[in-house]
TrEMBL record:
GO MF term set: metalloendopeptidase activity
Gene3D superfamilies, per database record: Thrombospondin type-1 (TSP1) repeat (2.20.100.10)
Biological processes, Gene Ontology terms: extracellular matrix organization; proteolysis
Stated name of the protein: ATS13 metalloproteinase
Cell compartment(s), UniProt: Secreted
Transferase as UniProt keyword: no
Domain of life: Eukaryota
Amino acid sequence: CHPVPKPESRTEVCDLSPCPPRWKVSPAGPCSSSCGLGLAAQRVTCVQIRQGKETVLEERFCPAAEKPLTSIPCVTRTCSYEWGFSEWTECSTSCGNGIQTRQDFCLNLLTRKHVNPIFCRHFPKAIVVRGCSAGPCPEPTVGTKSRGAGLQTVTPATHLTTAAAAQEARYKDLGLPPSAVPQEQTKETSGGEEIATKSPLWMHFSHLCSAGVCGKLFLNATGVINMMGVESSDCAVAIGRPLGEEITVRVLESSLNCSAGEVVLFSGRMMWRTGCRKLPLSLINSRTNTLIVKQRVWLPGNGVILQYSGRTAAKKHYQDCDKQLFGPQGEIVSPVQLPDQRQVVCRTFINVAPRHRIAIRALYIDPGHESNQTHFNYILVRDISTMKTMVFHGKQQFLWQSTGSQAEIEFHE
């Protein structure tokens, strides 16, 4: 362009008005699940550009309908294990309302084989019981009764007293003494109808006979358990402490014959350990407030001697609304939650002596309508021995029995 004179360069202001507020999303954080589907949190803020500088504003200045999600789905890696299920069974009744069930199992995704359910215990599991309807039942004639009448699982609360005779028959079939059958208290309504006034859940623990130290539950803060010379080849004891504590066990002496296959097992909700060699003076920490010790010996006189003590847990392993019951019997009342705790799952842990089993019967369930009540939609009852879970919905009364000495109940919204 030479020799044409070059004009002077200059800058002119084109628009001094600030940019409209907009949402700004920061990079997502770590995935909440170590495998499988989880959630990753991301920070969402309302910002505005003013003269080239970014300013953070209150969220009300940005359009609420356009706000991005504060958490997004994420997958770190494929899980090695997951729950699998069989097909649903046919409806339990030929007419009327009944139930369908299916079996659950823990599946190794690499080998596609069934494995011990303990590998899936931390993964969510779908329901294994659901309601079904086989159509209306024909009107019963005099002296007969509907085929589905004895299989009804959902009973309105106002009809509890009409099932008193059937209740005694059911408990007789379970082998429970007459004194163990709950006596329902009733009150009369204005219409002359009686309804049950028993607490939300009632449970009774049935007993299996055992002698000596085997099958006992130890609840003291400290003690010594001598499992040497027991008559049974399989011997189990349980140790329990309040929530907030954990248990430390020291093996004082061991005469187990490892080559003969003799072994001792320590199991809790968060740990699992077996051993035979180098047991003396070794320490075992339960990591929670309960521990079961199982011993298998083949030669007379062999066994272990343990010393245990409870101490404050290093890490909290329960919610504030959780409860711990050790039996031999008691009542479970649905926990009261505050408005800011509505997302917390409240659990009741039940641990009894290994020689006992647990029976839980719900006499009356009322989700309630007051602000200080727990508004739960369903209840989960989990058998810890098999890790199988039963789901009970709404106002459904139920009678549940364990296969082992440990159970958990969860109240879900």
